[in-house]
Write a structure and sequence with these properties.
alpha/beta, six-stranded mixed sheet, 34% helix, nuclease
């Protein structure tokens, strides 16, 4: 009799547990710099490169606004030209500013560099360890010449 009663109690307790659904496991917090570690692992393994490369037009260009392109793959992210309003447009299109690797400037004109100051401040605020700025030779003049920044002419 005692064995029958304990078996019924176990069965009813199991039924209650199954009706409530499985207990959810807490996920560990995401590492904010996991994409950098992924890139480092890729370099060590020697894989040839990404399978697919995507191109997104951030700004099409107009009378006062320059064109901006966002080229990305599973490993690298590049921004070509950083005109005024590009940061807002990237946020509207759900493009990740914090994962940029390189910013390329095609010419030193306000429609191509107008949003660069804000972009650099945002990248600094997000904690991005490095983002290479590449552009024409006029880019390395004035206050940027003596600062500890990584730029490629």
């Amino acid at each position: 009799m005692w064995a029958l009663r304990s078996a019924l109690l176990l069965r009813s307790a199991a039924g209650r547990a199954m009706s409530q659904g499985p207990a959810r496991r807490q996920r560990p917090p995401k590492d904010p710099l996991r994409h950098l570690r992924t890139r480092e692992k890729r370099g060590a393994s020697g894989s040839p490169g990404p399978n697919t490369v995507y191109l997104q037009v951030v700004a099409a260009g107009g009378r006062d606004v320059g064109a901006a392109l966002y080229v990305f793959s599973e490993y690298n992210r590049y921004l070509f030209n950083c005109g005024e309003g590009v940061q807002r447009l990237m946020q509207e299109h759900k493009l990740k500013v914090a994962r940029l690797d390189n910013i390329f400037l095609t010419r030193m004109h306000w429609c191509n560099v107008g949003g660069l100051c804000g972009m650099i401040l945002t990248l600094k605020e997000t904690g991005l360890p490095k983002c290479v700025l590449s552009g024409p030779p006029q880019l390395l003049c004035g206050p940027t010449r003596h600062q500890n920044t990584r730029m490629r002419p």
